[in-house]
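Work Package 3 (structural annotation) set out to generate three-dimensional models for the target panel prioritized at the project kickoff. During this period the team completed the workflow that converts sequence records into discrete structure tokens, so that structures can be stored uniformly alongside our sequence database. As a representative example, we reproduce one entry of 94 residues exactly as it appears in the project archive.
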Amino acid sequence: MEIKDNTFSRQFETLVDGKLVSVEYSFQEKKIFLTRINVPENFDDEEFISDLLKNIMAIAVERKLKVVPILPKIAAFFRKNPVYKELLPPGIKI
């Protein structure tokens, strides 16, 4: 999966079937806040979203960032994938 970090739009982007899927973010200190997932109409491939989030977690590790999941769907991803809980900042419990 190829992910583009569109810093101008503050989102990670990838294409699925020629349509844009993105995860919006904002930065504060050494934390990245994942705020929204944008998908095409009638898109419901949860496995694809999970794979996209796993790739974003790899980017966070590479950049030495802590991840703050603002969106309930992203918090649920952390609950289903406890291996990524180390990326949560101190005091954030999911």
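The longest helix spans residues 46-62.
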